[in-house]
Design brief:
Distance between the termini: 29 Å
Helix content: 40-55%
Strand order of the largest sheet: 1-4-8-7
Order of helices and strands: EEHEHEEEEEHHHHHHH
Number of helices: 9
Strand content: 5-15%
Number of strands: 8
Structural class: alpha/beta
Radius of gyration: 18 Å
Length: 286
């Protein structure tokens, strides 16, 4: 992906150089962060759910201020450029396809742990979108985890992660996320998991629209980039993560979708470029 020397976003909130702050735990996260804790736990082979149990943790400073390396700086610049691309693309898509104004999300960069209205953001939660403040939370060390442990390599795989989380903001802007989470809150565990899958697959499809428009608008896509994104979608499918953790895949526990589903919906968005093609909630077959 051609990104160096290009415009970055002004909607980056960089907390990486400040001392970590721990407040209410990720038990308060509405959907995405909690799911990420469990999914990362699947891959690493141990149970991270105790992190979800204490929602009464008092705010406190933890550790020394993080040291910002050259790699951290480059990762921050990369994320800023990708975020700027999403802002321009979704502004255009909203205007052209639904006649609405797109309000960009802010993206919080952090190292170690930081607070959000949805609870603590940490390396354990992975990247997530918090509807409470309309911000994406991202520790760029997750990119290393993707490459070394999940087998999702390449800069466009990293861009896909940002685009997927911004996809949740797009859902929020369209009123989809709040409606889906409201129904989830009133559903059985099995039905709530199925709704979560549809939320995630739609975000994958929206990331596909972004990838298509990034090529058409900026010409920033290089050979193999789309394949990197499709591979990343496959590597973080629930079935693949559970197998990697030495477990038999349990479809009733899936919250993000299978590898095949995630890559399929990304490609749907990539091929169509249309919001209407990303209606996972009406799809009879995911």
């Amino acid at each position: 992906m051609e990104w160096r020397g290009r415009r970055g976003s002004g909607n980056i909130e960089d907390r990486r150089g400040v001392r970590g702050v721990r407040g209410a735990s990720v038990g308060g996260v509405g959907g995405i962060g909690v799911i990420a804790v469990v999914v990362i736990g699947y891959f690493l082979g141990f149970d991270l759910t105790p992190l979800l149990n204490d929602s009464q943790t008092q705010t406190q400073q933890t550790g020394a201020p993080a040291q910002i390396t050259d790699a951290d700086k480059q990762a921050g610049q990369f994320v800023s450029v990708v975020l700027a691309d999403t802002e321009e693309i979704w502004t255009g898509v909203f205007k052209q396809q639904i006649g609405e104004t797109y309000t960009p999300a802010k993206l919080v960069l952090f190292k170690g742990v930081t607070q959000s209205p949805c609870g603590d953001a940490s390396g354990a939660t992975g990247p997530f979108y918090c509807p409470g403040d309309k911000k994406v939370y991202l520790d760029t060390d997750f990119f290393t985890t993707m490459s070394r442990q999940l087998g999702a390599e390449g800069d466009f795989a990293m861009a896909y992660v940002v685009a997927h989380e911004i996809g949740h903001h797009v859902q929020d802007e369209m009123g989809i996320l709040s409606q889906a989470n409201d129904v989830r809150g009133r559903s059985s565990e099995a039905d709530a998991n199925e709704i979560s899958v549809r939320i995630e697959l739609q975000a994958d499809c929206l990331a596909g629209i972004w990838a298509r428009e990034a090529q058409n608008t900026f010409g920033s896509i290089q050979k193999g980039d789309f394949e990197e994104a499709v591979n990343a979608a496959k590597q973080i499918g629930d079935d693949t993560l559970q197998r990697s953790a030495g477990r038999v895949p349990m479809p009733e526990s899936f919250t993000h979708g299978t590898s095949a589903q995630r890559s399929t919906w990304f490609v749907k968005g990539l091929n169509s470029g249309q919001l209407s093609a990303c209606d996972t909630f009406s799809a009879s077959n995911l």
